TrEMBL record:
Protein name as it appears in the record: Uncharacterized protein
Transmembrane segments: 6-22
Keywords: Membrane, Transmembrane, Transmembrane helix
Organism: Neolentinus lepideus HHB14362 ss-1
Amino acid sequence: MQHRRVFILLGVFFGLVFLFNLKGHHKQPGLRYSGGSLTGTPPNYDALREWEKNLPQHNVSLPYPEGRTGRYVKFSNQIRALGWNNVLNEILLCTHLAYESKRAYVFQDYYWKPEYYPWRITIMPWDDGPRWPQTPINALISGPTAGGPWDDGDPAPRSVSEAYFDEVCPPEDRDIIDTDTIKPGLIDAEGDVILKRWTEVIHDSPKRCVEIVAGHKDNFPQTFDLWLIGYTRLLSLWPIFKDSPTSRLFGTAPIVASAVDRNEYLFLPRGSRPPRYGPHSSYDRMMAVHVRRGDFEEACYGLARWNSTFYGWNQLPEHLDRFTPPPGGSWGENTPENIAFYLEHCYPNFDAIVEKIQDTKRAYIGNGTERVLDVMYLLTNADSAWVGKFKAVMMSQGWSTIVTSKDLVLDDEQMGVNMAVDMEIARKAAVFIGNGWSSFTSNIIHRRLVDGREPYANRFW
Ligand SMILES: *[C@@H]1O[C@H](CO)[C@@H](O)[C@H](O)[C@H]1NC(C)=O
Ligand SMILES: *[C@@H]1O[C@H](CO)[C@@H](O)[C@H](O)[C@H]1NC(C)=O
Ligand SMILES: *[C@@H]1O[C@H](CO)[C@@H](O)[C@H](O)[C@H]1NC(C)=O
């Protein structure tokens, strides 16, 4: 258990530290800060909050299974103050569980890990640590999880807010279920078994309202926790989850889509007039690459020492680039050869990155007609010297347009969801190369698989 716990902490670390470019804070004597380097007033999404509050399902007069006689489930054990992508994969699975249990899912704000919030957070002298900034879920995603409609004709109740749940589910109508009463029977269980068991528990509760609360015996008291999502046991859920309405109807938030649209001019191919124009849409000629640099090397050593597999949907057998932990090593240690093997994939060097991009482009172009790839979107935390060198080499290899996250122009509401903006561009790109251990990559891969992308289009270093 100790082994796993350390490993999982590394996994959490990995999931968190992705694209955010942590700049130094301007220190003032006596005051402590967390968050990023932006010093203005963060967006409060007032208009969106008002809209969320007035969703049509927030109406006690609606007939069963909504309204005051309706059935609801709130997962109060959902993870908070972690990276967005650790939260996202969990809330999608919880939505599907609510759906199978024939109850309305209760959506909640996203609570930031303070260190990764773009704006500076002042820690008050009387506080132990920074507060957790909150973003309404509808700023980040759309679809049934966030209160959007189900398929035409589907009688499932729509998701509701926490405030509405509190109104329609007074304490006497609530069945409070502690995860400690269920999870010990599910240790090392397959994903589909976990879904089935929780569906019985939540569906069969005699109360109209169910609230799942975090048990104290468990450091990771989530319904679908990191022990599941970081292991191949997750994969038995894929056939069920992939085609579920939660997954199919999961969509891009309008604020995110607007951020992508306003920057679309940056993606227009800039090269000399080609012999053939190729696809008209810039996204159809785009490769998006997720390259983690900087302190990430340290995290990769940790993953190697603890023999970590790929994360989440990156582990699916249908991918061309798979990673099998090599034999050898011992508890918390691995052989130098094995560590080198991990780094090749987790922290590839400059030349390996260039080569992988060439090979990936060749394979993708070769599997169709009239395919052109000349636009690159680079998702990276690398320093500008690295990016400069990389751009020069890419330009020399026919990539006429190279855009990075830092080139995007965003207003405050869009800046507050910039990780989702990057993910949306990576979703739309014809080809994506990601990091197999990353939850950010896994959630992009989920959307791309639902979109029906071919194997040559979904690659890992
Ligand atoms: C609430 O639902 C009832 C029953 O469907 C409907 O008559 C009423 O107009 C709804 N209220 C609002 C504010 O939409
Ligand atoms: C890693 O996993 C492989 C395959 O399951 C196993 O052979 C090896 O001993 C493990 N190494 C460590 C360091 O636990
Ligand atoms: C090649 O293209 C075909 C037709 O679009 C597709 O079915 C197949 O999956 C592709 N192969 C790979 C390895 O992506």
